[in-house]
Design a protein that fits this description.
Structural class: alpha/beta
Strand order of the largest sheet: 1-2-3-4-5-7-8-9
Number of helices: 11
Radius of gyration: 18 Å
Strand content: 15-25%
Shape: globular
Length: 294
């Protein structure tokens, strides 16, 4: 990874980012399989740099870009979800040709901040996604019934869904019912009831759901997923989340995904840290295993 070359382009020819986006060969959102395998890398912009016990695992940008380029090169990987800084680098590297590019839209709810649940849209705007010829957007919707900031996020989410629909661009909504622990940490509730409720709320946002997808977790008891996913007819993808630090944890996650992928509304996976930073360090093997689940 030649960081010097990237910096040289950014300093001397910043227009190259837009030019690379304009000449990027594109593809349909879904291929012949009707499934999606997207690698997620939008965590750093929220200040979420940790992997298990390694607090700054994602902080080395050259290392992250190398991992992303390797993941994107593997057969069956459809594309990437990231913020503008990372997507700009990948455009300059030529890594996004014929890939699905998903812009991350709201990153204002910084991890650990008092305002974490007032999740402002500080990333890609719908007009940015359209201008750059990207294929979709993604937003995070965490709802804490005791935090007024969640109402701001709900309203902003609805307007973002409207703006994406006006442009006929898919938007992937990642909903959670959340709460703060006594220590002040935001924790997502993965019980069947909470995930069901979050799906119901997210499905009804905006003036149309025609271009809305859901990005959902596997419930704490995977056997509940069939009933949970019956809450909506919107197409959905599974997210990876935090799965642990050991190969056994990784294998358990694969098994949970395998079962949920059989459900009729579930159309794929959007997984980041567990594939880019697997417990055994083998990115290619982790990505290939995930692709095999589809």
């Amino acid at each position: 990874m030649d960081v010097s070359a990237l910096v040289r382009t950014r300093t001397q020819h910043p227009e190259e980012v837009a030019e690379a986006a304009a000449r990027r060969p594109r593809r349909a959102l879904l291929g012949d399989s009707g499934r999606l395998m997207i690698v997620a890398a939008d965590h750093p912009a929220r200040g979420a740099l940790g992997i298990g016990g390694r607090k700054l695992a994602m902080a080395n940008r050259a290392d992250l870009l190398e991992r992303l380029c390797l993941a994107l090169s593997r057969p069956g990987v459809d594309g990437v979800l990231a913020t503008a800084d990372i997507l700009d680098d990948l455009l300059l590297l030529g890594a996004l040709d014929n890939k699905i590019v998903m812009g991350s839209m709201n990153r204002g709810g910084l991890q650990g901040a008092a305002f974490e649940l007032d999740d402002r849209f500080t990333g890609h705007r719908p007009e940015d996604i359209e201008r750059l010829g990207f294929d979709a957007g993604k937003l995070l919707l965490r709802i804490d019934y005791s935090d007024p900031g969640s109402l701001t996020t709900l309203e902003s989410t609805a307007r973002a869904i409207d703006a994406m629909a006006e442009r006929r661009l898919p938007v992937f909504v990642e909903p959670f019912i959340s709460r703060r622990t006594p220590e002040g940490r935001v924790k997502n509730d993965l019980s069947a009831e909470a995930v069901t409720r979050s799906i119901a709320i997210a499905s009804g946002l905006g003036g149309t759901s025609a271009y809305t997808w859901l990005k959902v977790p596997v419930t704490e008891h995977p056997d509940d997923m069939a009933e949970v996913m019956a809450t909506s007819t919107l197409p959905a993808v599974l997210l990876g989340g935090e799965i642990g630090d050991t190969p056994e944890d990784q294998e358990a996650a694969y098994e949970k995904w395998r079962g949920a992928l059989r459900l009729p509304t579930v159309r794929g996976l959007v997984v980041g840290r567990s594939l880019l930073y697997p417990a055994d360090g083998d990115v290619a093997a982790a990505v290939d295993t995930a692709v095999g689940l589809l």
